[in-house]
Specification:
about 325 residues; alpha/beta; Dihydrodipicolinate Reductase, domain 2; nine-stranded mixed beta sheet; six-stranded parallel beta sheet; about 25% strand
Length: about 325
């Protein structure tokens, strides 16, 4: 039995805990939150052994093998590095950290320690995302849209010091999905974006086009202008020699038109990315499969968004990766 600890008993902590409850061989052993009442409520709901407000209690407990980091983004670096030093495996909610440089530091530390560390990139686990990649395995063009309704100014993730805003927080998902479909690392990006309406001053909307090492062109639209009709908050398109795919309705509805054909096939799936990423994590911990969403991949997605924002500010194309994939 794998004993897991939750750092952060908010919405993301709840989603992960609900998924863990559906899996065998793993349980919530400890709950940690700065709000003691939330930690106590989680302990009762998930029948955990420990509730605490002190992360140090988690690091010192030898009964705990795995730690979920589901706290505000600006706390991730210190928590993750402490967890790695304590020998804990990690599931880190995206973004890994507030900056790509910090994300790379966490990736490097976990790799040197030989620990299992995964980042919550749920999109790649959606059934229709997997189907789209299988139907158009070598696309020429990929586009992804992550467009939300306006975020409240007092939402912690919208704070430039705590979460960085929508483009950073949500854009990580879109950037990773582009790379997942392109099946290559990004080379450069040209983007247009700005602080259009958020009083917090963050870059709240961005349109970016990436060139990948294999020549694939990928376009990302991310922000909080308002969820569009028909296609919904999450949307993806792939165009390649096999044909064209459109994935809408929060990535649960897929339409495929083979190249040279007029027939359109339709498929439907479930929005079960968080459950499936937890299932994949459990397989990695058991040694049954490699880590399915690595910290390197989380770092690359974050570097893509940072380079996009840099391009929007500089008004020129920018290179994406400045760190090397080695330790």
């Amino acid at each position: 039995m794998i004993n897991a600890a939750l750092l952060g008993c908010g919405e993301m902590g709840r989603l992960h805990a609900d998924c863990i409850a559906q899996l065998s061989g793993i349980r919530i052993y400890a709950c940690c939150d700065t709000n003691e009442s939330r930690a106590l409520a989680f302990r009762e709901k998930y029948n955990a052994a420990v509730a605490t407000t002190e992360p140090q209690r988690i690091w010192q407990d030898e009964n705990i093998q795995l730690v979920y980091v589901a706290t505000p983004t600006n706390s991730h670096k210190a928590l993750c590095l402490a967890g790695i030093a304590a020998g804990k495996h990690l599931m880190i909610e995206k973004p890994i950290a507030l900056t790509a440089s910090e994300a790379h530091e966490i990736y490097t530390a976990a790799k040197r320690a030989g620990l299992i560390a995964m980042v919550g990139l749920k999109f790649r686990f959606y059934e229709m995302v997997q189907k789209a990649r299988a139907l158009v395995p070598s696309p020429f063009l990929v586009s992804v849209q992550v467009m939300d309704d306006p975020w409240p100014p007092d939402f912690w993730a919208n704070d430039p010091e705590q979460g960085g805003g929508n483009v950073i927080s949500q854009g990580i998902h879109g950037a990773d999905l582009l790379r997942f479909f392109a099946d290559a690392d990004p080379e450069c990006v040209f983007a247009v974006g700005a602080n259009y309406h958020q009083p917090t001053g963050v870059v709240d909307n961005l349109s970016a086009t990436f060139r990948f090492e294999n020549g694939v062109a990928g376009s990302l639209i991310v922000g909080d202008c308002g969820q569009p009709p028909q296609v919904s908050k999450f949307m993806a398109q792939l165009h390649g020699p096999a044909g064209s795919v459109l994935v809408t309705e929060r990535l649960t509805h897929l339409q495929f038109k083979p190249r040279g054909s007029t027939e359109i096939s339709t498929y439907r799936g479930e929005e079960s990315g968080i459950l499936e990423e937890n299932r994949a994590l459990l397989k990695a911990l058991r040694g049954e499969a490699p880590v399915a969403a690595t910290l390197w991949e989380g770092y690359v997605a974050q570097a893509m968004i940072e380079a996009g924002i840099q391009s929007a500010n500089s008004r020129r194309a920018e290179r994406v990766l400045t760190e090397v994939h080695s330790v």
